[in-house]
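Lecture 7 notes: from sequence to structure.

We start with a single chain of 179 residues. Read the sequence below before looking at the structure.
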Amino acid sequence: ERNRLKKTLEYSADLRNVDLAIMVNYGLDIEALKGQSMILNGVVQGDLNPDWTIQTAVAAVRSDAGAIRLSSSLDKSLTYKDLMVNLIYDQPSGKIAMNNTTMQINDTTVSIVAERKIDAAGRKILPVTLKGPEVTLAQITSLWPESSRDTNAAKWITRDLSGATFKNINITANIPEDD
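Now the structure, written as C-alpha cells:
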C-alpha cells in the first residue's frame, strides 16, 4: 500500500525459508550482516523507499539452525540453533536494535542485545552482546583467533584455568560497520 504522505510503500510479509543474504543484497543496509547466510521464517513489516530499498523494518523471525560470524577477529563462526530474532531497523535515523532475541549455542540458551551506536570519530559501531548463564573455558578458547593461542597469556589461562566454568557471562563484540 502506497503512503503518499511519507512517499513510501508499506509492506508486510510472512517469511518462509528466506535467506537473509537476499534481504541484505536488496535493501537491508546493515554492513555487519553482509556475508551472513541463514534461513529465516517469521513476519516482517515496514516501509520501502521509492527506489525499493528498505526504509523501516520491524521483524520477528526465527532460524532453526546455522552459523553466524560475529567478528572477523574470531577464527570460527558461532554455530547456533533455535534463533529467535526481534529486530527494528530505521534507515532515516540510522537506528538498528535487536532485543528479546535468543539462540542456543553449544546447548546453552543465550540472549542477544544489539543497538547501533556512533563513536566519537563518527564511525558506526554495532555492539552485539551475548548473555548466557554459564560457559566453560574450552568453549571460550575454541573461538580464540589462531594468532592469540600461542601467547603467554593464552597458555597461562589454558593451563591454570582448564576445567573452569564461568557464570553470568556477558560478551560484547563491537562490530564496525564502516570497514
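The CA atoms of residues 33 and 132 lie 22 Å apart. Keep this in mind for problem set 3.
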